[in-house]
Specification:
The protein has 246 residues and is of the alpha/beta class. It has a single domain, classed as NAD(P)-binding Rossmann-like Domain (Rossmann fold), CATH 3.40.50.720. 37% of the residues lie in helices and 16% in strands. The chain has five helices and ten strands, in the order E-H-E-H-E-H-E-E-H-E-H-E-E-E-E. Helix 1 runs parallel beside helix 2 and helix 3 runs parallel beside helix 4. The protein starts with 13 loop residues before the first strand and ends in an 11-residue tail after the last strand.
Length: 246
């Protein structure tokens, strides 16, 4: 029988991780499990998410809540956050890792594919912030990490949708800092933010990750000057190492 919130010590921090079934989201969840955190895991696929939860339990997490959720769906994110609060009674940290990438020149990418990347990486991040910030502000403590990318600082051929989305994530994190300076201070890596409520972005590289099965494919990482229009590869890309949270 799996441990429940009622059977675990009340002082153990609760951390919500999106994109928790693979890549950096899974790495973050496993590291947090090793540290004994109570976890809420979000990702689209129920099967991979359950396998991730079993790994977390085996590593020592006293409570793991599994919530299959597509971060592109604002209502679904709202329900997931509400369910975490209902089950656990608290939320101390959020690691937002959900993300996808599509390769191809801007004019080659179908609008639906471009939109899906931006909706997952940028709008998904906004949905998560929208529903966790009110709770963190009300309790005047907590941490939020938005996983960005070095590509959020540069432009890269054949990665237009991903580049736009990660520049947007960086701006979103900055905006959240600016809008939440109205409480007592705490020190952040680049600015100041409300009472013990920290928000930051991490900017890792691009390790390999599973393909996105539900999105159409277009393009591949190309040589200088562009990509091959006859080859296709659309993949989830997740940054490496898990940030310390809560």
């Amino acid at each position: 029988m799996h441990p429940t919130a009622a059977s675990t010590p009340p002082g153990v921090p609760v951390v919500l991780v999106t994109g928790a079934s693979s890549g950096v989201g899974l790495a973050a969840a496993l590291e947090l499990a090793r540290r004994g955190r109570r976890l809420a895991l979000l990702a689209r696929g129920a099967g991979p998410l359950e396998r991730a939860a079993e790994q977390c339990r085996s590593l020592g997490s006293p409570s793991v809540t599994v919530l299959p959720t597509d971060v592109r769906d604002d209502d679904a994110v709202a329900r997931a956050v509400a369910e975490v609060l209902r089950r656990e009674g608290r939320l101390d940290g959020v690691v937002n890792c959900a993300g996808v990438v599509a390769y191809g020149r801007l004019e080659e990418l179908p609008a639906s594919l471009f939109d899906a990347v931006v909706e997952t990486n940028l709008l998904g991040s906004a949905h998560v912030l929208r529903h966790v910030l009110p709770h963190l502000r009300s309790q005047r403590r907590g941490s939020v990490v938005l996983v960005g990318s070095m590509i959020g600082h540069i432009a890269v051929p054949t990665m237009s949708a991903y580049t736009v989305s990660k520049w947007g994530v960086r701006a979103l994190a900055r905006q959240a800092l600016v809008e939440n300076r109205d409480s007592a201070d705490c020190t952040c890596p680049t600015s100041r933010c409300p009472a013990s409520t920290r928000r930051s972005t991490v900017r890792p590289g691009m390790p390999a990750a599973p393909p996105v099965s539900h999105l159409p494919s277009c393009g591949r990482p190309g040589r200088r000057g562009g990509s091959s229009p006859t080859s296709s590869s659309t993949r989830v890309r997740s940054p490496t190492p898990a940030p310390s949270t809560a």
